[in-house]
Specification:
The structure holds two protein chains of two kinds.
Chain A (H helix, E strand, L loop, with lengths): L2 E6 L7 H14 L4 E5 L7 H4 L10 H5 L5 H4 L1 E2 L6 E4 L12 H14 L2 E5 L6 H8 L3 E6 L3 H17 L1 H5 L5 E9 L1 H5 L6 H8 L3 E6 L2 H9 L10 H13 L16 H6 L3
Helix pairs in contact in A: 1-12
Chain B lengths: L2 H6 L6 H19 L5 H13 L9 E7 L4 E7 L5
Antiparallel strand pairs in B: 1-2
Classes of the chains: A alpha/beta, B alpha+beta.
Bound molecules: adenosine-5'-triphosphate and magnesium ion.
The site of adenosine-5'-triphosphate (ATP) has 21 residues of chain A, from helix 1, strand 7 and helix 11.
């Protein structure tokens, strides 16, 4: 039985695809057989972040519609050999995904994979609902900013009412908060919501805090999941998040400004 | 922000405002979320009935369902205009 994890947010552009790529790579690096599925039908970004855009032949929608087998559509990652990517269609509409179609593919993937990571499209409508429907767990990607937090709360509402687990009256989808693009400097200056603020409002357990980092853009330019930049703050923060997802206890890092000098610390009594 | 506040690390930026606004909107939306689907329609109809007698605006009628363990209470709040 695979663990099905949706990476979702409501608001667009907050870091879902970046997160899906890194979490799936992190799980696979630890030896778990992992597949990351792109639910963003019509856009398709995951293949670029995973550096396999030129190897896409068949996609998720082809498999749902019976035009290709799963094995024909799955792309094996060149860096981590327990990692596979199921790319999505660039030409279809989000409505090409149906509960029955998605279920068929998820069930088949469940037979061979330990982890299925679902990269959700933005929004709270059909596409996002298809991505979260079969999830056992949800990583709610949130930026420390009003509209992102509000949308995260709305997506939590959907997880609690419209997921398969909710509809069947099973145990609820396990929720994790992943705060990304965090800027400790700005938080200290009172310009940005803090981790504690967002935790208090959303009231779900914190999986990790990913700092705002130049490295993320550099990595995505090269088609490298940022978790493989093992020296970088963002890479390490994602590695911590993956460890916690697997039940490891790790202290939260990157929540304060590392470079802060002795004097400012002294004056702030910290 | 005063000079001293700065060194005490007291926050005076807009994050506090953001947090307060979020707390209000999120609480409001969570309340809406648990409401039955028929509620907006019912609110419109109640509004129409009251308007036969008194002129009131949309936001002067508030309809809410409060669910407890074994019963639900329909709460109807109508503000009448001053005479
Ligand atoms: N921690 C970070 N630091 C800096 N930039 C980041 C960080 N995380 C994501 N980004 C940048 O934010 C942009 C959006 O990221 P991404 O594509 O992962 O978001 P998304 O939620 O998948 O977007 P969409 O809703 O369009 O699918 C990208 O340019 C990415 O490089
Ligand atoms: Mg995306």
């Amino acid at each position: 039985m695979a663990r099905i994890i949706v990476v979702t947010s409501g608001k667009g552009g907050v870091g879902k695809t970046t997160t899906s790529a890194s979490i799936s790579t992190g799980l696979a690096k630890r030896g778990h057989k992992t597949v990351v599925v792109d639910f963003d039908v019509g856009l398709r970004n995951l293949d670029l972040i995973m550096n396999c855009e030129r190897r896409v032949v068949y996609d998720f929608v082809n498999v749902i519609q019976g035009d290709a087998t799963l094995n024909q559509a799955l792309i094996r990652d060149k860096r981590v050999d327990t990692l596979y990517i199921l790319p999505t269609s660039q030409t279809r509409e989000k409505e090409a995904l149906t509960k029955e179609g998605v279920e068929k593919v998820i069930n088949e993937l469940s037979e061979t994979f330990d982890y299925i990571i679902c990269d959700s499209p933005a929004g709270i409508e059909h596409g996002a609902q298809m991505a979260l429907y079969y999830a056992d767990e949800a990583v709610v990607v949130t930026n420390p900013e009003v509209s992102s937090v509000r949308d995260s709360d709305r997506i939590l509402g959907i997880l609690q009412s419209k997921s398969r687990r909710a509809e069947m009256g099973e145990d609820p989808v396990k929720e994790h908060l992943l705060l990304t693009r965090y800027n400790p400097d700005r938080v200290e200056r009172g310009e940005m919501l803090s981790v504690a603020d967002v935790e208090e409002i959303l009231a779900i357990p914190l999986l990790g805090v990913i700092p705002e980092s130049q490295v993320v853009l550099n990595a995505s330019n090269q088609g490298l999941p940022v978790i493989l930049e093992t020296e970088s703050d963002a890479g390490q923060a994602y590695d911590d998040a993956v460890a916690r997802l697997l039940g490891e206890e790790r202290e939260h890092r990157f929540m304060t400004n590392q470079k802060k000098g002795f004097f400012s610390r002294m004056f702030k009594g910290g | 922000m005063s000079f001293l506040d700065y060194f005490r690390g007291k926050k005076s930026g807009s994050a506090n405002v953001a947090k307060e606004r979020l707390q209000i909107i999120v609480a409001h939306e969570r309340g809406q979320r648990d409401q039955p689907d028929y509620l907006p329609q019912m609110q419109q109809e109640i509004l129409a009935v009251i308007r036969k007698y008194v002129q009131i605006s949309d936001d002067m009628v508030q309809v809410e369902v409060d669910r407890n363990d074994n019963c639900s209470v329909l709460e109807l709040n109508v503000t009448l205009p001053e005479r």
